[in-house]
Amino acid sequence: MTYKAGEYHLFEGGGQEYLYLVPSGGIFALTDLSSAIIKKLKGGEHTEAELLSDLATDGFASTEIEEAIEELYQSHAITSGVGFKAEVQPAPMPFPLQTLVLNVTNQCNLSCKYCYEFGEDRVATPEGKPKFMSEETARAAVDFLLANSPGRRAVHLTFFGGETLMNFKVVRSTIEYARAQAHTAGKYIDFSLTTNATLLTPQVIEYLAENGVGVTISIDGPRELNDTFRVFNNGQGSYDVIAPRVKELITRHKSRPIGARVTLTSQVVDVKRIFRHLKDEIGFHEVGFAPVTTSPVRLYAIGSDGLNNVLEQFTELAHEYRDYALRDEHHGFSNVSDTLQELHAGISKAHPCGAGLGLLGIGPSGDISPCHRFVDSDKHKLGHISEGVDRTTQAEFLERGHIQRKVECHTCWARPVCSGGCYHEAYVRYGDTGHANLHYCDWIRGWTHICLEIYGELAARNPKFLEHFDERKSI
Amino acid sequence: MKHLRAVNRKARRIEDYISSEYGDVFALQQGPPQNRPHYPMGCSLVFSPGWEVDATGGTAGLCQPVERDLYDCYISCFWPAQVPDHINNYPDWTSKCATATKDWRQIDLVFP
């Protein structure tokens, strides 16, 4: 029998060699013998007899070699002939909902220039539609969530905007309604929202804390960085308005960890400084970063050089996370913890995310879209809350975004975690939600490799820390 | 597995799958059966001598590996108590098994 290398990514952490298997997402630690076989086959095909004689001269016993070959073959790290055929199981449809995102308004009191909802690359077509979600629509959405989540014990409702707190009245009444309905349906429901923090009054903070509502704050760092893009209509920066409110929220709201979400642009890329400010000076529990979603022609778009620079800074911060984790301390760089979570589970995605599957977005008018980023876009509408999801449109959307259709991804080792990347990002860049996000392939592979190394080092030196990831975090 | 150590949750599932798929064969002399369905391998135990001896007069490990002795019982020396008989009733019993060392799982039970 002739053997050859299967699909995997080899990495090292804490002095130990590991295989990240593709497409399964399994992570295995290698011994000297299995590592020797992998390296031998990396150079080309070998027959079993060749492997046996070559490795025997390296001092390995032939029964051991045979055993190791068999284990590598059975786990698909090495293959023979035409290789293994990956069988893709279709998702059970209709897929039970887990999360519903209610865009309770499409209005905002800030005018952030990069905003995907209002900026130059918007996909929304809100003309002639309601600006604020009514209580009736929000209640219908809650009923829709509870009715379409069979088999799920816990469901999640998240509020989004526009600026979410501009329609706080509906947020509040919806939480009360949802809690009562979920109780009747025998389900657990939890709540979260994203806000720009401008409208966080003491009353609102009190309510969010009392009701255990998860809060994510959109903020881009210290004053001069935050105010580069996050400005009011008149151009005035928002930092001085939000900083004291956020601090008050963090002091008062202890029932859920408060996270910051930073948008990186060509002008705002000082990752470490932003992290230090938000974590140490403001007091956020976690800080997550995402490069701005935009067409490449915008001045604030981050080019490939910029992305390399961001990756370098991410790496430094990620190593800091690793050092904290080795000491069993919480660090708060959520890009690392999110990736470690996926690596620990060994996730292998057929679709890049749950949009249109277990997660849907609802616009102020009651239109259903794949996620909050497509809300109010007629082109991406999947139905209306009064009639439910149009299963044909949904199936087309999901088929378009399936990894099997993304041929460019089929030779990439990072596809189990990436699966082609964000639908919205792909639409803005390529005009097709099913297009692979080829502009950040190197970034994804670079970042996944760094996180694998950290995972490996923790597995070797502080495996107990990884047990934190055994429980699946809610979204 | 000895040469690969499962580290993440998916790897542990792969390991479980492999052991349920391939680790279901136990030699009779390995001791009491495991807590899952398995093939008992071999037709004599260490402590049930007298049926047959190997070339050195020993009784341990007869029919192990089973492919060594399978055809002896099936075709040449004919031990129908242990395997189906080739001559009269099951001439096609091993027709799906081109190479005993690789394909022995293709050989199924028979129900007279």
Produce the secondary structure layout:
The complex is a heterodimer of chains A (475) and B (112).
Chain A: E1 2-5, E2 8-13, E3 16-21, E4 27-30, H1 32-42, E5 46-47, H2 48-57, H3 62-74, E6 78-79, E7 99-103, H4 135-147, E8 154-160, H5 168-185, E9 188-195, H6 202-210, E10 214-218, H7 223-229, H8 239-252, E11 259-264, H9 271-282, E12 286-291, H10 304-326, H11 334-345, E13 359-362, E14 367-369, E15 383-384, E16 388-389, H12 391-400, H13 415-418, H14 423-430, H15 441-461, H16 463-466
Parallel strand pairs in A: 7-8, 7-13, 8-9, 9-10, 10-11, 11-12
Antiparallel strand pairs in A: 1-5, 1-6, 2-3, 3-4, 13-14, 14-15, 15-16
Helix pairs in contact in A: 2-3, 4-5, 6-8, 10-15, 11-15
Chain B: E1 4-6, H1 9-22, E2 25-27, E3 39-41, H2 66-76, H3 100-103
Parallel strand pairs in B: 2-3
For the termini of chain B, the CA-CA separation is 38 Å
* Strand proportion of chain B: 5-15%
| Spatial shape of chain A | globular
Numbering strands along the chain, what is their spatial order in the largest sheet of chain A? 12-11-10-9-8-7-13-14-15-16
What do the pLDDT scores of chain A average to?
A: 94
The spatial strand order of the largest sheet of chain B comes to 2-3
Low-confidence stretches of chain A: none
CATH domain fold name of the largest domain in chain A: TIM Barrel
